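Reading a protein record of the kind used here takes only a little practice. Think of the row as the fold of the chain written in a discrete alphabet. A record is reproduced here so that you can trace the correspondence yourselves:
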Amino acid sequence: MSYKTIVVQVGGDRWCDERVRYACALAAQQKAHLVGLYLTGPTSGTLAYDGYAGMIQVWSREHRQADERSDKLCQAFEASVRDYGIEHTEWRRDDGEAVHAAALHARYADLIVLAQPDLDDAGNWFEPHFPAAAAIAAGRPVVVSPHGRGLCRLPSTVIVAWNGRREATLAATSALPLLRRAKRVIVTVVDAEGDNDPYGKDFGSAFALYLSRHGVAAEYTHEVAGDVTVADVLLSRAVDWGADLLVAGAYGHSRARELVFGGVTRQLLASMTLPVLFAH
């Protein structure tokens, strides 16, 4: 099992080259068809919320310059593709609303690589929740590439955030092509609550056993959050273990509730220091 089609978001943000190279490395590893996708439209929330007036101005400028930028971005994408020896590639541009557009193209792929919105980047007009919203709308796994040089490497050590819920199941099984190629996979449960699970609070080791039947030699660890958040625990362990990828379900509770009260997905998107594969 491998990914056959991967889509990568290509844009004018300062981390675009890093993200494209990461997607190229994934496509080369998986022998996948790689699609470069230039999204020029705003997110619906950006248009509706006056607090994002600056983002609207950036998007308006980008949209006016889209034809010129598209050619330059396509040329840079094709150069990266040649460097990685990828044979099957494609270039697309979509001027529609960004979440809808990303979801539409993702439905014809196995994986989509999106940018972590960088609110300090003058070229960013995407809202912080954009990647997770795209994952929800697409029904496909989304790898969010963090902003920062050298943060994106092919997954060698992978943390699977496991809580026994639907979203975590989809994320972990969607990541199987990457987990099989990783050198170390750690199933991590934070503050286990397994009263309604057939395996009780031992569901983490049960899922590690499930992965072993798919050719993944996974470890299991149970962590206690204490006074910090689940997201803080996961990101801290990622540093401790030198992880290259975190796999997590997106919005286990209602998205509206998470936007109000925080939530693991929102906190990971804000503070991530490594690529995160989300699914919903």
Observations:
- The chain has two domains: 5-145, 157-279.
- The chain is about 40% helix and 20% strand.
- The longest helix spans residues 66-83.
- Confidence is low (pLDDT under 50) at residues 46-51, 253-262.
